[in-house]
Specification:
The complex is a heterodimer of chains A (355) and B (76).
Chain A (H helix, E strand, L loop, with lengths): L1 E5 L1 E11 L2 E3 H4 L7 H11 L3 E3 L7 H14 L10 E5 L10 H9 L6 E5 L5 H12 L7 E8 L19 E9 L5 E8 L7 E2 L17 E2 L5 E2 L5 E2 L1 H23 L8 E4 L4 H11 L10 H4 L7 H10 L2 H4 L1 E10 L3 E10 L4 E6 L1
Parallel strand pairs in A: 2-17, 5-6, 5-7, 14-15
Antiparallel strand pairs in A: 1-9, 2-8, 3-4, 7-8, 9-16, 10-13, 11-12, 15-16
Helix pairs in contact in A: 3-4, 6-7
Chain B lengths: L3 H8 L19 H15 L16 H11 L4
Helix pairs in contact in B: 1-2
Classes of the chains: A alpha/beta (355), B mainly alpha (76).
Chain lengths: 355, 76
């Protein structure tokens, strides 16, 4: 599906990461593997440090902390928020929507559109698409998009395939109308027939959580995991990304009439360094123009990794420059998405720690 | 330059790869070992094995790995 948006822009990005940092070296002892094998994996995948919430910390806590920071720094006024979108796979509750909880905790106006979107690693582009659509309405002048997940709470500590890569984070992205007539292009694809490749089997209505679903089971490769935990078919997801994402990006650039060389950066979802290097090689994009350093510093925080990559790699540079960037997300659903956008001259682009 | 067999032995020294015709079925390489192996082969032969070729059937035994390397342009 194709999208095009006129006179819209991103006016600020904030990433909130937990202050609590874990190192892969310290965590290796949790896995039933020889140290040498784990160290090789560290080198290839880029595992090093990751940020995790303390027990009990939820998505709304990270989001409220970040928004309050923006209010305190006079970077955003509460009454300016006409829509609040939250993209998450780890909501505070089934009911009510976590976006409503955030609105209530911050005392935002009642004349606001709050919406939870259940998407994961492709969710930044999906949230942007939804936000830019809302800005077509006369009454909506500013949209706050929050991508947040605390999936470390759903990762088995005894699963080497999942646990070392997961991180927690929230990103807050402010969207508004632009006086410049630049066009934002986006593409989106979905394939629910492969939904089970990335799934938390228990905890919903299909398989409610019980003492049985909480029991750790031997699941191969010396890993232990419960049905309450996040499962990823790593080989299937790797192949999905390598097969599906390059043609999506190529088609997006063709739609926009833009060559790869004129794109300053390709900010992709950050599953691990190896997958992104292979993606860059396949697309013949220099590794430096497709940053892959989020996992080693923060871990994979699902839909928050693309804005984390932008805030971490561009920082103050984005306050004064305008860059042509291609964003690409891929993950649960399966869903894959891409957007070409002129990004820059923003009001803020920074990372803060949640304490 | 190391041989494929030497690289495999570095990754999983406990196995005799020369004696197996199916590394995957025999439980000698898991998906993360394949990733480690690809990174090592890329470095050793100065190539980049395409991500779309990182499939279990290409890492089944020495012959399939060498066929993949030749296809990618490695000089064995």
């Amino acid at each position: 599906m194709n999208f095009a948006f006129h006179r819209k822009r991103i006016s600020g990005l904030l990433t909130v990461v937990p202050a609590n940092e874990r190192s892969f070296i310290e965590e290796m002892k949790n896995f039933n593997f020889p140290e040498a094998r784990s160290l090789k994996l560290k080198e290839v995948m880029g595992y090093d440090r990751r940020r995790l919430v303390e027990p009990g910390v939820c998505v709304s806590d990270l989001a409220v902390f970040g928004l309050q920071h923006l209010f305190d720094q006079a970077l955003l006024k509460p009454d300016e928020i006409d829509a609040l979108l939250l993209v998450t796979q780890s909501p505070d509750h089934f009911m009510p929507p976590t976006s409503n909880i955030i609105q209530g905790r911050l005392g935002l106006k009642q004349d606001v559109f709050c919406l939870d979107i259940s998407q994961g690693c492709a969710g930044f582009v999906i949230g942007l698409i939804q936000g830019f659509q809302l800005l077509e309405q006369d009454d909506i002048r500013k949209v706050v998009l929050i991508n947040a997940d605390v999936l470390s709470r759903k990762a088995s500590p005894k699963d080497r395939n999942i646990n070392p890569l997961i991180g927690d984070a929230a990103s807050i992205t402010v969207l508004e109308r632009d006086t410049q007539d630049s066009v934002i292009y986006a593409k989106l694809k979905m394939d629910g027939s492969r939904a089970e490749a990335l799934i938390i089997p228990a905890g919903g209505m299909r398989m409610p959580s019980t003492s049985d679903t909480a029991m750790l089971e031997e699941v191969g490769d010396n890993n232990l995991r419960a049905k309450d935990h996040l499962f990823m078919d790593g080989a299937a997801i790797f192949n999905f990304v390598q097969v599906e994402v390059p043609p999506l990006i190529e088609a997006l650039l063709a739609q926009a009439g833009v060559s790869k060389d004129s794109v300053d950066y390709f900010f992709c979802h950050q599953p691990n360094r190896f997958m992104l290097e292979k993606l860059a090689d396949k697309m013949k994009i220099p590794h430096g123009r497709m940053p892959n350093n989020v996992v080693e510093h923060f871990g994979n925080s699902s839909g928050a990794t693309i804005p984390t990559a932008i805030t971490f790699n561009l920082r103050e540079r984005l306050l004064h420059e305008n860059l042509q960037v291609c964003l690409a997300g891929f993950g649960a659903g399966l869903t894959w998405s891409a957007m070409l956008i002129s990004l820059g001259n923003v009001n803020f682009n920074t990372i803060i720690e949640y304490k | 330059m190391k041989s494929v067999l030497e690289i495999l032995k570095e990754i999983r020294p406990e196995f005799d790869f020369a004696a197996s015709s199916d590394f995957i079925a025999d439980g000698m390489l898991d998906s993360f070992d394949m990733v480690t192996l690809v990174a090592a082969l890329d470095k050793n032969y100065g190539i980049s094995i395409p991500g779309t070729d990182i499939l279990p059937e290409n890492f089944q035994n020495l012959q399939t790995i060498e066929a993949l390397l030749r296809k990618t342009g490695a000089k064995l």
